[in-house]
Amino acid sequence: MSTHPNDAGSLLESSVDDGVLTLTLNSPSDGNALNVAMTEALSKALEQINDRRDVHCVLLRSSSAHFCTGGNVKDMQSGSDLMSGSVEEVRDRLHRSLHRITRALSGFDVPSVCAVNGAAVGAGCDLALMCDIRVASTKAVFAESFLRLGLVSGIGGSWFLARIVGYARALELTLTSEFIDAEAALGLGIVSKVVPEDALDIDARSLAKRIAQNPPTALRMAKRLVREAADASLATTLEMAASVQAILLCGREHKEAVGRFLEQQAAKKRAHM
After folding, report:
1. What is the pLDDT of residues 130-188, one digit of tens each?
2. How many domains does the chain have?
3. This model's pTM is above 0.85
4. Pair (129, 240) in one structural domain
5. Any idea which GO molecular function terms this record carries (predicted)?
6. What is the domain range of residue 233?
7. Is residue 208 domain-shared with residue 220, that is, in the same domain?
8. Same-domain status, 197 and 225
9. Same domain (yes/no): 200, 67
10. Distance CA 13, CA 173 (A)
11. Which of 164, 58, 74, 185 is CA-nearest to residue 119?
């Protein structure tokens, strides 16, 4: 396992093990709020990932009882938040700060897994939605709670939510600011699995490691194909699939994978003789 220090100290912890880069939000005193410091630390870490060939999957988690409680309401009131200043300043700051997180996470070549414990609300809910796969503990709660503060999602959460749960349910969750528990999130497809709190890290890491074990080039291309196919026509998807498959069929990874498969099959046959 290798650990990479972070410029923001302990706000965000980073380590790599078996191809899985684990990013841990570590500001329990404010619920891992996406304040200026956390936003900068997370943005920097996320923006480096596509260039790292040692990373095959990203696991985003927290070290505390909550995943991320969104923006810090006290900072909003005091005027020290990302959303202080004139309309023009706030709009520009959103593009240059929080939107960096959105662009980086949505632009990952590698898959991402999010382990959600406790609250994932407001921008924290959006942060979880930006990941490819979410695993929740039984204590997880989710909410698009912006309207409670007279706001909307300023970092693109509506785009992700509608694609995960559908237009009508996305609108319902947004307009009611309803808090939903892990089981309700499972029913809506927001999370793929709910596990006991003490099993969350083990289960999420296991999933991330299983993903990371795949041939790295094929893994990145498989994610890209699924992502692009979500908004493409069948004809376009078939063209992309043919191009990607041709590249992989002619590549070293495929030939090595076939060789390993045949060796394993031969070993199984010998074991039963």
Report:
1. 999 999 999 999 999 999 999 999 999 999 999 999 999 999 999 999 999 999 999 99
2. 2
3. yes
4. no
5. catalytic activity
6. 216-271
7. no
8. no
9. yes
10. 31
11. 185
